[in-house]
UniProtKB/TrEMBL annotation:
Keywords from the UniProt entry: Transferase
GO molecular function annotation: glycosyltransferase activity
Protein name: Glycosyltransferase involved in cell wall bisynthesis
Domain Glycosyl transferase family: 199-355
Organism: Muricoccus roseus
InterPro entries referenced in this protein's UniProt entry, alphabetically: Glyco_trans_1 (IPR001296), Glyco_trans_4-like_N (IPR028098), Glycosyltransferase_grp1 (IPR050194)
Domain Glycosyltransferase subfamily 4-like N-terminal positions: 13-182
The organism's place on the tree of life at top rank: Bacteria
Length: 386
């Protein structure tokens, strides 16, 4: 199929991993894919973004910045329309972004189906964190795009309920979670080690480091522990919370047992995760499909994660992970200590997690096949070229 991929991503973070991985997988499946998005995306390095956009957001007051986001849709729509005229796609696939109406407008004009990937209810999210001023306009824009899409592809069932509540009929909703490329990870996980085999057990976290990830609580629990197998902590990633976490580790007197690697190239991530004995997801937003979970599973690591509906869509307590009650103080660290003391449990959870990825085909190539099947179905329904 000929698929026109529309996006408005400015930075090379987890969003970019999703975009690049799915596009590559679609192409490997034999589809022609043309990507249309901000020119700054192609110039951004890993973890980087548009300095112009960041500067405008700082300089403009909230409502003006949001109107500028909406106004950006004019050149974005023109760019997408030109690409559609040249490429003659069978379908448009768009990564949803607030105030981004281009895919809905161009798909309708061209008479081709629109598949809309949704990773977050952005109007709600930005309202909750206080960064949204034009809330009624944002809710209208979000509802407009969701309802205009032929198929909406949220990344979790939890998020699918948000989409349905906005008025999208359930038959037009298909959940497609994040994925992984298993070629990046050895088929067999390294065997679980016991304490005293030359180095401490490694607790690990990989990803962009933000305050809400809850790593400060991990550091405090780490500093307070007494006894048990020796542990170290590796935090691989960059982000606004890193400096504060480094300062906290020094304040708590554990800086010699905590390593911050900074931003790691994507090709280094499998090696880093392969060195973890226990992989941490200390917190997660309630509707997300965290990329790191799939990376941990593919690497066959023993995972500690919060017990919440979106993560239970992928993980099963005491089968593929230890899930802790995020409302109960000390629950996360209790799971860590249990795994630290039980190498057999670490190995069984890691092996089962890897097998779950394979059994359910939680891969980018699997997602590409699902997306292409949906695109064919919608193109056929419209009488478009198969």
């Amino acid at each position: 199929m000929r698929i026109l991929y529309s996006h408005r991503i400015q930075s090379r973070d987890g969003q970019g991993v999703h975009l690049d991985s799915l596009v590559a997988a679609l192409r490997e499946e034999g589809h022609e894919v043309r990507v249309v998005g901000p020119p700054s995306y192609d110039r951004a390095g890993l973890g980087g973004g548009s300095r112009v956009l960041s500067g405008l957001r700082r300089l403009l007051p909230g409502p003006a910045a949001e109107l500028a986001e909406l106004a950006y849709g004019v050149p974005a729509t023109r760019r997408l329309a030109r690409a559609a005229a040249e490429f003659a796609p069978d379908a448009i696939y768009e990564r949803y972004n607030l105030f981004h109406l281009s895919g809905a407008l161009v798909a309708r004009r061209r008479g081709v189906p629109l598949l809309l990937e949704v990773n977050a209810p952005l109007a709600e999210e930005r309202s909750r964190f206080g960064s949204l001023r034009l809330r009624r306009l944002a809710r209208w824009a979000e509802s407009f795009v969701w309802r205009r899409a032929d198929r909406v592809l949220p990344v979790t069932e939890v998020l699918a309920s948000h989409v349905a509540a906005a008025g999208v009929p359930e038959p037009r909703i298909a959940v497609v979670p994040n994925g992984i490329d298993l070629r990046d990870y050895p088929a067999a996980a390294s065997p679980a080690r016991t304490a005293g085999e030359g180095r401490p057990l490694v607790l690990g976290f990989v990803g962009f480091v933000r305050d809400w990830h809850g790593l400060d609580a991990v550091l405090r629990a780490f500093a307070a522990r007494q006894g048990g197998p020796p542990l170290s902590l590796l935090i691989a990633g960059q982000g606004p919370a890193r400096a504060g976490l480094e300062a906290l580790a020094a304040e708590l007197g554990i800086a010699d047992r905590v390593r911050f690697t900074g931003l790691a190239p994507r090709e280094e991530v499998p090696r880093l995760i392969g060195g973890f004995d226990i992989a941490l997801q200390p917190a997660a937003v309630p509707y997300a499909s965290p990329l790191k979970i799939f990376e941990y599973m593919a690497a066959g690591r023993a995972i500690v994660a919060p017990d919440q509906p979106n993560l239970r869509e992928v993980l099963a307590h005491e089968r593929t992970a230890l899930l802790f009650d995020p409302e109960r103080p000390g629950a996360l660290w209790g799971a860590v200590e249990r795994l630290a003391a039980d190498p057999a449990l670490r190995e069984s959870l890691g092996t089962a997690a890897r097998a779950e990825v394979e059994r359910r085909d939680l891969t980018w190539s699997g997602n590409a096949r699902r997306v292409a099947a949906i695109a064919r179905e919608e193109a056929a329904r419209r009488g478009a070229r198969p």
